Amino acid sequence: MSFNVNDLKPIIEAVLMASEQPLSVTMIAQLLTSETVPNKEMIREALELLQEDCAGRGIDLKEVASGFRYQAKQEYAHWISKLWEERAPRYSRAFLETLVLIAYRQPITRAEIEEIRGVTVNSNIIKGLIEREWIKVVGQREVPGKPELLGTTKEFLDYFNLKSLTDLPALSDIQDIDQQAIELERQLQLQVVTLDDNTREFVTENSEAQ
Amino acid sequence: MSFNVNDLKPIIEAVLMASEQPLSVTMIAQLLTSETVPNKEMIREALELLQEDCAGRGIDLKEVASGFRYQAKQEYAHWISKLWEERAPRYSRAFLETLVLIAYRQPITRAEIEEIRGVTVNSNIIKGLIEREWIKVVGQREVPGKPELLGTTKEFLDYFNLKSLTDLPALSDIQDIDQQAIELERQLQLQVVTLDDNTREFVTENSEAQ
Amino acid sequence: MTIDTTIQITEAPSFARVLGKSLLELPQDLYIPPDALEVFLETFEGPLDLLLYLIKKQNLEILDISIAKITTQYMEYVDLMVGLRLELAAEYLVMAATLAEIKSRMLLPRPESINEEDDPRAELIRRLQEYERFKKVGEELEFMPRLERDIFIAQVELPELDSERPLPDVDLRELMLALQDVLRRADMRADHEVRRDLLSVRERMTQIIERLHNHQFLKFEELFTIEEGRAGVVVAFIAILELLKGSIIEIVQTEPFAPIHIRSASHEL
User: How far is the alpha carbon of A119 from chain B, nearest alpha carbon, in Å?
Assistant: First the structure.
């Protein structure tokens, strides 16, 4: 199948609208690769036509440094900001679970979070947490791929009114149903106190848990 | 300042495009309150015109349970999904069967679900459904043990691109046994899905059941 | 929980399809090859589901189910199941008992005129029908368009706004509820032990990494604060060992008895 510019227009419009990032001409061409040899000239032409279509509408198709994106027109900013007054924003459960895992398991990689949660972590969640300044990249693991290590920030502690991470509830308090957990936590406390000789043992046990 | 429908169109378009959630006519009217006495009729008219504008474009203005939202036309999903690294979550048969029972028989208790499915409902399924915000506890039955009554949410309908429960596929009718003996075999072979006009019948039946 | 094993039953002719591979030979005479048994069990959502399958497979007139035959077949399944999954077997046993009861009532002398309500099979048939209706819609739901897979929300960049967009509020309780759920789920996956961790160690690990950002090398001793007492020293030591094990830091010593230094494993060479 080969496209003409009128076939391309709605596809590019749909893709740009659904994308969370601006898309460059090259990226758009790559998306269409499987179907046809992408013709960048035609993509540019379609983008220009889409830009013209925005006349009289509520949105613009803008070219920014990293590519093209749709944006609500500046003149409607007033009404858009009223959106937030109508509805208090909230975070998803996945967002909170990711945050809490980073708090309790830091420094932790994204892959490790995914392993514990059993589902993939959406990159927007990590991005959102970093934007909120609740987490940051604290380093990287020196293994293939050099995955980034995530940890919580001082701002995270401040927001939740904590002096230090150790002020977070002990896991045993959370799992009060599970008597075993309480028992285990108590044992661990004891272990720390009597750690002198058997430090090595404890560490081994602890790292097996990872 | 008072609006005419042509002034309204780009404002509503910009607001809907900027919003993360679908917006109902009432919510749109509230957004415009400060400027003028909102005229819901005019808002509806503007929405209809905006819907017509989507013809031939890459996006649709769709009305789902919690309001109107712009979404990419389904025929372009193929290209869009290439933008995402993560694959859409999959749900098990048990998960979907339980969801369907709650949707069609709500308000329903867990015991009633088990009665129909002939099998214990794994509590992780209920928890998973609540976590996804597809179902919620809507009350309790006033019998010993006060079992919780479960119902579906607007988020469930939004997720499945539906405006109301009546848009769900119709349940096949239960026929009386004599007729059934003749027809069941044929039905079982054909697995006919009757999606036609008995949608409405279903609703009546369903609401009687409530 | 939401992870689908991609097992579905295709209809007419019914056979189990496992990960795209047909097990056509499987239920010819209701004998299940032992190696396929577990897969076969997972294919069914309980006894009603299996019963529906048997009825379809046997091509039976539903009103003329040979209860004896079904019961025998059922007991075979149950025998096979007991070893595998007791809790599942219990539900199947109830069904087998129901079937046996129906059979025994059928054997009793019947009144002249029998109406539907007296027919012991009627209740079972009603339940089977009822279940099948929902089962069908459940299967349809899988193919209905849904967000994330078929439907993508169109959303545009915001213009510059006159008011700051408020950020969502979270309270600690909410965060703990999220953690509770993660822990419960992780509990079911035996390979994870989330709860054993000591937060103080975790916190120290992050602190050490941060300090290494500012200094290329840190003296080993600098990582310990005597004022923290023995517990604090132990925490710091465990944190160093954990970081070492996680390939996050390196310990270097240029010659025997020279000062020990810590540096980031990702240092520029």
Answer: 8
Please report which residue ranges of A61-178 form alpha helices under DSSP H.
77-86, 93-105, 110-117, 123-131, 154-159, 171-174
Q: Is A129:A99 a contact under the CB 8 Å cutoff?
A: yes
Pick the more confident residue, A182 or B202. A182
- State mean pLDDT over C246-268: 79
Residue B196 dihedral angles phi and psi, to the nearest 5°: -75, -125
Does A10 sit within 8 Å of B58, measured CB to CB? yes
Please report the residues numbered 168 through 227 in chain C whose beta carbons come closer than 8 angstroms to any beta carbon of chain A: 168-170, 172, 174-176, 178-187, 189, 192-203, 205-206, 209-210, 212-213
Q: With 0-12 CB in 10 A as exposed, 13-18 as middle and 19+ as buried, what is C160? A: exposed
Show me where the domains of chain B are located.
5-82, 93-202
- Residue C185 pLDDT: 64
Contacts of A14 in chain C (CB under 8 A): 152, 154
- Helix segments in chain C, DSSP class H: 37-43, 47-58, 67-82, 86-107, 120-143, 172-188, 199-214, 229-245
Determine, for residues A70 and B21 on separate chains, whether the beta-carbon distance falls below 8 Å.
Answer: no
pLDDT at C249 over 70: yes
Q: Do B108 and C19 meet the contact criterion of CB atoms below 8 Å apart?
A: no
Place of tokens 């050099």: A146
At which residue do the structure tokens 């010593």 appear?
C253
* pLDDT value at residue C229: 76
Average pLDDT in chain B:
80
pLDDT of residue B192: 34
Chain B CB contacts of C148 below 8 Å? 88-89
Distance, in Å, from the CA atom of C187 to the CA atom of C189, rounded to the nearest integer, reads 5
- Contact call for residues C187 and A116 (beta carbons, < 8 A): no
The CATH architecture to which A93-202 belongs is Orthogonal Bundle (1.10)
Query: Which chain A positions have a beta carbon within 8 Å of B78's beta carbon?
Result: none
pLDDT score for C13: 37
Q: Which of B27, B30, B73 sits opposite A10 (nearest CB)?
A: B73
- Our CA-based measurement puts residue B57 at a distance from the nearest CA of chain C, in whole angstroms, of 12
Domain A5-82 of CATH type 3.40.50.920: no
Q: Could you give the ipTM of this predicted complex? A: 0.69
Which of the given ranges, A79-93, A163-177, B5-19, C15-29, has the highest pLDDT on average? Answer: B5-19
In angstroms, rounded to a whole number, what is the distance separating the alpha carbons of residues B189 and C64? 17
For B67, left (φ over 0), alpha (ψ -120 to 50), or beta? left
In DSSP notation, C45-113 reads SSHHHHHHHHHHHHT--GGG--HHHHHHHHHHHHHHHHTT-HHHHHHHHHHHHHHHHHHHHHHSPPPSS
Per-residue pLDDT at C179 exceeds 90: no
CB-based contacts of B38, cutoff 8 Å, min separation 6: B28, B29, B30, B32
pLDDT tens column, B152-201: 999 999 999 999 998 998 887 654 444 544 454 444 444 333 333 333 33
For the stretch C195-222, pLDDT in tens is 445 677 888 888 888 888 777 788 888 8
* Pick from B134, B128, B130: nearest CA to B157: B134
pLDDT at B198: 39
Q: How many CB atoms lie within 10 A of CB B88?
A: 12
Query: Strand C21-22 and strand C15-18: pairing?
Result: antiparallel
What is the rounded distance in angstroms from the CA atom of residue C119 to the CA atom of residue C115?
7
Q: What is the pLDDT of residue A201?
A: 37
Query: Mean pLDDT across the stretch B107-117?
Result: 92
With residue B127 as reference, give the H or E element that holds it. Answer: helix B123-131
Q: What are A62's two structure tokens?
A: 């803008």
Question: Which of chain A's residues have a Cβ under 8 Å away from the Cβ of B57?
Answer: 9-10, 13
Sign of CA dihedral A77, A78, A79, A84: positive
pLDDT at B112: 93
